[in-house]
Amino acid sequence: MRETLYAVLYTLIMELNASYDTEYSSSLQRLQHEPWPLEPVDPNKGKFPCCIVWTPLPVVSWLAPFIGHVGICREDGVVLDFSGSSLVTVDNFAFGAVARYLQLDRNQCCFPPNMSAHTCKNAYTHSENGTAIAWDDALRSSVRYFENKTYNLFTCSCHSFVANCLNRMCYGGSMNWNMVNVAALILFKGRWVDHWSIVRAFLPFVLVVCMGILVVGWPFLLGLLSFSLLLMGWFVLGSYLLKNILEC
């Protein structure tokens, strides 16, 4: 009789433990795959949670307004940007306030705790190039990596930093983020902060064009167009045909 009672108690204990383990595992899985809600974007406070942000560059944006300085933001909205050799600034966006932003969807990221938990189709490549377990973890890893890099506008720039972050997240299931598609992403999908941001981005370019035509004449436009095409050609060529040139 006593042995039967012990057997029943043992069975009940094992069932309770199994139930607890299942519930704990389920809760842990929900925590891993259901990130906490983000605060709203607040340009007045300079907070852009999980956003790519953009601002015009002095001189360069005056000649080619589609080129600017970019950064990426933590989940609390703080901006991180690669702004100089071995320098990633925090909450101090170089070259002025954010003019344009694009909030990204964390559900399109792959944050695997192990090799068997990848949600992307690039498990091996993703692991080989570096993974993260959360959005901010990916940013921290990229910050450490770029703290030892030399800044160069044409080969290793702020766009390279953002691309590295997106590759660590395997954002959108892609491991091919680079300077060109990062620039295109914010250029075609980004939202302007306000009307003044549009003026700040394009007014210098308009003034340069007007002064150039006034002083040099219409050939100035041809020279400006050639400059823009050469610049675009360099980045496209380096990103897609000669990748080792722009590897950072």
Instruction: Work out the radius of gyration.
Output: 24 Å
Number of E strands? 6
**How far is the N terminus from the C terminus?**
74 Å
Order of helical and strand elements: HEHEEEEHHHHEHHH
Strand content: 5-15%
Spatial sequence of strands, sheet with the most strands: 4-3-2-1-5-6
**How does the helix and strand content classify structurally?**
alpha+beta
Helix content: 40-55%
Q: Sheet with the most strands?
A: 6 strands, antiparallel
General form? globular
Spell out the key features of this protein.
248 residues; alpha+beta; 6-stranded antiparallel β-sheet; 6 strands; 50% helix; 11% strand; globular; transmembrane; TMEM222/RTE1; membrane; transmembrane helix; Protein REVERSION-TO-ETHYLENE SENSITIVITY1
Give an overview in words.
- It comes from Acacia crassicarpa.
- This protein has 248 residues and is of the alpha+beta class.
- The protein has one domain.
- Helix content is 50%, strand content 11%.
- The chain contains 9 helices and 6 strands; from the N terminus they run αβαββββααααβααα.
- A 6-stranded antiparallel beta sheet has the order 4-3-2-1-5-6.
- Helix 5 packs across helix 6.
- The N and C termini lie far apart (74 Å).
